[in-house]
Amino acid sequence: MNQDLVAALRTIPTTGQPLPYHEIDVDLGSLGSRVLQVYACPIDWDDPRDRTMIFLAMEDVTDRKREQERKQQLLREQAARIEAERANRRKDEFLAVLAHELRNPLAPILNSVLVLGATNAQPSDLAWALKVLERQVRHMSRLIEDLLEVSRVMRGAIQLRKEPSDLSKVTVISGFEVASKLRARPEFDDVIIIAVSGCGQEDTLKRSGEAGFDDYAVKPIDLDKLNGLMRRTRRQD
Q1: Which has the closest alpha carbon to 212: 234, 185, 193?
Q2: What distance in Å separates the CA atoms of residue 52 and residue 13, rounded to the nearest whole number?
Q3: pLDDT in tens, 180-189
C-alpha cells in the first residue's frame, strides 16, 4: 500500500479527524495502473480495549481522471489554436500595412523618372525630381530596415542586455518635442506622425497640431482606425 497513505491512516486514532480525499496510483495487475480515491474516518463504537475502528472507502476514479485530462488537453489545444490564429491575423495586418507603405512611394518615384526623362524638362524640374527620388528612396529604405528588424526579432537574432540605470540621469522628452524635432529635419517631410494619447482635451489637440502631428487619436485605438487615419492624412496631402 502507498506509504504516505499508511502514515496518514495511522494519524486518525490520535487526532480523531477524518482523512481528506486522497488519490493514489496503484498497480492492479491485469487491470493495469489505476487511480484510487481514498476516504477514511474514525467510527464511534464501544470497544472495551479502547481500539479505534476506521471506515475506509476506495473509489476507482481512473476513467474520470483521464476524461478530465482529455478535456484539459483539448482546452490547451484550443487556446494554442486561437493564439496561432491571432498571431496569423497580426502578421497579415502587418504585411497589409507594409505593402501599403511600400506601394505609396512608387507613384512619386515614377513621376520623377518621367520628369527626368522628359526632353523639355527645366533645371528646376530636374532638381525637384531628384529631391523627390531621394526622399522616397530613403522612406522605402527605412521601411525595409523596419521589416528586417521584425524578422530578426521573430528569429530570436536580437538579444536584450539588461543593466541597471540611474533614472535621475535619464533625459525626459515629450511627444510634442519629438514631433517638432522630426519636422525640423527635411528627410522626415513625407513621414506621417500621428499622436496617440489617453486624453482628447482641446488644448492637447491644439498643441499636437502646432508640434507637427498630422493627426490625433485617443486610446484605445485599433489597427483599422490607425490605418484609416493614415489614409485620410494622405488624401488631405
Answers
A1: 193
A2: 6
A3: 888 888 777 7
The answer to whether 198 and 219 have CB atoms below 8 angstroms apart is yes
- Per-residue pLDDT averaged across 154-166, rounded? 75
Q: Domains of the chain: which residue ranges?
A: 3-60, 104-157, 192-237
The phi, psi pair for 222, rounded to 5°, reads -100, 175
Mean pLDDT value of segment 80-107: 84
- What span, in angstroms and rounded, lies between the C-alpha atoms of 177 and 87? 34
Mean pLDDT of the chain: 80
pTM over 0.90: no
| SS3 assignment, position 164 | coil
Q: What are phi and psi of 48, to 5 degrees?
A: -60, -25
- Per-residue CA distances from 110 to 105, 115, 136, 139, 191 (Å): 9, 9, 11, 15, 19
pLDDT at site 77: 94
Which position has the grid cell 485620410? 232
